[in-house]
Every structure is written in C-alpha cells, then in structure tokens.
Write a structure and sequence with these properties.
Elements lengths: L2 E3 L2 H8 L6 E6 L5 H13 L2 E6 L19 H10 L4 E3 L3 H4 L19 H4 L3 H16 L3 E5 L3 H13 L5 E5 L19 H18 L4 H13 L4 E10 L9 E11 L2 E11 L4
Parallel strand pairs: 1-4, 2-3, 2-5, 3-4, 5-6
Antiparallel strand pairs: 7-8, 8-9
Helix pairs in contact: 6-7, 8-9
The structure holds adenosine monophosphate.
Length: 277
Amino acid sequence: MTVLVHTRADLASALHAVPGEIAVVMTMGALHEGHRQLMRVARERAAFVVVTVFVNPLQFGPGEDYEKYPRTLEDDVAACRAEGADLVFAPARDDVYPHGAPSVTMHPGALGEILEGASRPGHFSGMLTVVEKLLLLTRADVAYFGEKDFQQLALIRRMARDLELPVEIVGVPTVREEDGLALSSRNRYLSPDQRRSALALSRALREGAAHSDPGAVLAAAHKILAEEPGVRLDYLALTGADLGPAPDEGPARLLVAARVGTTRLIDNVPLTLLKGA
Ligand code: AMP
C-alpha cells in the first residue's frame, strides 16, 4: 500500500517504527520512466521506499521555470503506487521551509562553480540544502539519484562524504527514449519540431563517445550540434569521471547543456579515453 502524506508531522508518524532499511527517491514530480527506474532499483533492495515530490524554490534562479514547472501530483502518486513505493511525501513549501528561506545553507565548493553551476548561480546550493533536509526528514539509509543529473549526483556524494551524513548514495544510469532522448520532466515543454532538434544532444554524445581521443570526441560531438540550428549550445565538456580534468587515458564523461526554444536541456554519457588512439 502506498500512503500519501503532506506534512512533516505525518511523515514522522508514518516512519515511526519502520523496520529495516529506508530508501528515498527525491523528485520534483511530473514523474516519468527515469524516476520509476530509481524506484524500481530502490524497491529491489530496501524494506521501505519513500518518494518525495517537491518543487524546491531554492534551486530555481530568477527567470527560471519554478512557476510553470509541471505539477501532476495525482499521476505521480499513481506512478509511485504502480512501482510499489511505501510512502509519498509531497510537502508544501512552508512544510519544508517553516521559517522562510533558510539563512544557513549548503555551499557546494569548487565543484559547484563549473558547468551547471556556472550557468545557474545558486542552483546547487539550493539543491544540496533541500537534499540534506529531505535526507534527515525521511531518515533515509540509502538514497537513489539519476546519472542524468551527473554533477548533482557528484555533489550529493561529496556532501555525504565531507559532512559525514549517515546515508549511502547510489547512482542510477540514465533512462532514454528509444531514439536516445534522455527522459526529463522538461521534455513536455518541447513542440514536435523542438523534440526533433533536442535529439541532437544525445546523438552528439553518442557520436562523441564512439571516439577515444579527446580531440576527436569533442570534434564529433560539436559537429552534430553545429548541424542542428534549433539547438543553442550552453556547454559541451569532456571531463574525468569525477568531473575533474579529463585524463589521458581511462574513464571520462562527456556532458552537454543547451537550449531548445526556451527549454534548457542537459545530458551526459560515460566514455573511455585511450592514449594515442
Ligand atoms: P527531478 O524530478 O528532475 O529533480 O529528478 C529526480 C531524480 O530523478 C534525480 O535523481 C534525477 O537525476 C532522476 N532522473 C531524472 N531523469 C532521469 C532519467 N532520464 N534517468 C534516470 N534518472 C533520472
């Protein structure tokens, strides 16, 4: 049975005396197969699965889509039910921030300044602050996050490590449509034409990752993006698997962010670099 609660008091009573491990999947709602995959992986392991649905105002900048972000709670609860989640926590803003905007917040450090952090000032501070609060409110032993938001996942891992949070962070590979488009709640903003343009992101990453020399990886990906006029590139970056500088050889990550119309999309893939390739 899936129970829906809205307040932190009801959450605390629902969690009272839960036996065994508590897993949390944090979402902003408008749930799709990507979110559902996180729930399935959580369900395989944990005795009790909590899904949070909260559009966190703290992680949206001025002019971003906080107001128009899709809110589809009824469908979201049905999806959680179908995946066998035990509890859905869908708090109002005042239940997460009862004292207004917090004055003590998380500081993501240097890793929060690059890539998404450079384009979205304050985003990662707001994200880490709510993740920390929701980890404590849900009393999670293990938390599942998608690789789709790779920098977010890396920062959450680092927060847990650096601040000794008693929680295991598990990353889950990106779920895609058959044609390669990474699932995202923001895909619903795209017109059919824009959706076709948006496919250039995953195609560029796939073409790039087929190479193993850094120059060739970036050239192949840039070529695809340049050929698609509907895509306004924000960044294309080749980094190490930890988002540090790309190594000469070994595991790496290729990441892209771009605007299609007014919708900002991100995607990334793993790849392996080889010396002298
Ligand atoms: P969001 O609702 O966009 O904040 O995402 C909630 C969680 O779902 C985050 O951990 C995301 O990384 C994850 N997620 C979103 N899209 C996907 C996807 N296509 N595949 C896997 N995980 C995803």
